[in-house]
Amino acid sequence: MKFSKTSISIIATSLLLCNAISACAGSSENPVASSGTKNADAGDGMFLQAEDAENRATELGCSGAHEHLIDGKTWYMPCSDHAEWMRLTGDNHDHDNGSAHVTDKESTHHDHDHDHDHGNSNMMEVISPDQADVLIEIEFRDGEVTAPANRVSSSIGDRIAFAVVSDVDEFIHVHGVDFMGVISSSSSINYLGFTMETAGIFEVEFENSGAFIIELLAD
Prior knowledge:
Elements: H1 5-27, H2 50-60, E1 65-70, E2 73-78, H3 82-89, E3 99-102, E4 122-123, E5 134-141, E6 144-146, E7 151-154, E8 159-166, E9 170-174, E10 179-183, E11 190-195, E12 200-206, E13 211-218
């Protein structure tokens, strides 16, 4: 069978089109968002790009964004302040295990696993106020946290001490560096803490209730 030059050209063009269509179909099976907003591990509402978090903040009615450091990677959430994000979304909890958290650059929901094995955490030691480089006074009553600020700064090598008054027995947990302290409601003030040896921004919360306390910034 003989083909004319025109027929051969049509066949070649058709083959090229088929190959192109197949390639496109194959590449669409696992699309990666160019903005980097898709993530299977960090939780819903967390973004790889600050701009995406800021856009989400505008939708929520706040501005700016703040960061979370999870396993060495920075994720962004809407609102410049985490407390503002929680107020707008009604979510009073946050973060995956091992998260740390920076203001001014968040979104809607951080799934935090509270099936945490306390036996694997670094346990805090008793540190009195006069031994502390940074003293953080915290009150926890009727499920409400009173703390000096949303973020407290420290330096590498500082001895961080928490002075905690609570009406329930709890655990205070510093995520990222994974330090855990036992809070007794029968103690007038619980003094406990640890030495900061890692740079970053780390979220502190009451482990059982999931109540956010502060962010610790260490540099």
